[in-house]
Amino acid sequence: MSRAFVILAAGKGTRLGGEPKQFRLLGGRSVWHWSLETARRLRREKLVDRIVLVLPPQMTPALPNGAIVVVGGASRALSVLSALRACDEDEVLLHDAARPFASVPLCRRLIAASTGKNAVAPLLPEANALKKIEDGRIEPLDRDGVYITQTPQLFPRAALRELLENAAPRAEFKDEAELWLQRGGTLDWVAGESVNFKVTEGGDWEMAQKIAGEGEIRT
Ligand code: CTP
Ligand code: MG
């Protein structure tokens, strides 16, 4: 079973503002580079055969050692599709470059849960009390059974590509696991990790800087 690790780094980072967040420096290297290190470790363990980096169109990067670079699209779906078209591995791990702290053990769990036909995502139980605000009205939201979805998410490459070729660019989904479920696919899950949060807004960036300065990378 061959496997590609895809780092999605073609977003604009509008919510955080400034230079797209994946290119900011975090603990001495770019945010996306943290994911490259994780992918390289997996490759050393022979769990990953190919690393694919998806970048914005205007960027002409030096080819990072051992990774292929593809140009992303205006939507996440198009960015993922570029990556899926560029590789021919049986499986893909799709990862947000904006999550610098995905651990190698998490990736091993995802890979171990793959049957070759299912998708696998890291889920984390929601710990906070939830409220929904609609038309200025605030209502309680039941937290029971609610999970946060993280990346990397594992998919059979050809099957996901087919879904995306038909769905993108009009597709309405937050992540590929959502599309997969909408189309009747089997999704299995492993325990996510709170440190694997997505850098989205200013507070996340501060937390990421603290972790990068004081934490250790788990191997
Ligand atoms: N992404 C991508 N191509 C896109 C949109 C997003 O590769 N067209 C990537 C981002 O670079 C990021 C990941 O998908 O690593 C998760 O997306 P998100 O956190 O929404 O990042 P942005 O879209 O860049 O941020 P924002 O939504 O605030 O503009
Ligand atoms: Mg976005």
Ligands bound to this protein structure: cytidine-5'-triphosphate, magnesium ion
Structural class: alpha/beta
| Annotation, overall tally of beta strands | 12
Q: Using the alpha-carbon principal axes, give the shape.
A: globular
CATH topology: Spore Coat Polysaccharide Biosynthesis Protein SpsA, Chain A
Distance between the termini: 23 Å
**Largest beta sheet, briefly?**
5 strands, mixed
Strand content: 25-35%
Count of domains: 1
Instruction: Give the CATH superfamily.
Output: Spore Coat Polysaccharide Biosynthesis Protein SpsA, Chain A
For the largest beta sheet, what order do the strands appear in spatially? 5-4-1-6-11
The CATH architecture name reads: Alpha-Beta Complex
Low-confidence stretches: none
Describe this structure in words.
A hairpin with a 2-residue loop joins strand 2 and strand 3. It contains 6 helices and 12 strands. A 5-stranded mixed beta sheet has the order 5-4-1-6-11, with helices on both faces. The chain has a 3-stranded mixed beta sheet with strand order 10-7-12. Strands 2-3 form a two-stranded antiparallel ribbon. It is globular. It has one domain: Alpha-Beta Complex (Spore Coat Polysaccharide Biosynthesis Protein SpsA, Chain A), CATH 3.90.550. It is an alpha/beta fold and 219 residues long. The chain binds cytidine-5'-triphosphate and magnesium ion (MG). Cytidine-5'-triphosphate binds next to helix 2. This is 2-C-methyl-D-erythritol 2,4-cyclodiphosphate synthase. Belongs to the IspF family. It catalyses: 4-CDP-2-C-methyl-D-erythritol 2-phosphate = 2-C-methyl-D-erythritol 2,4-cyclic diphosphate + CMP.
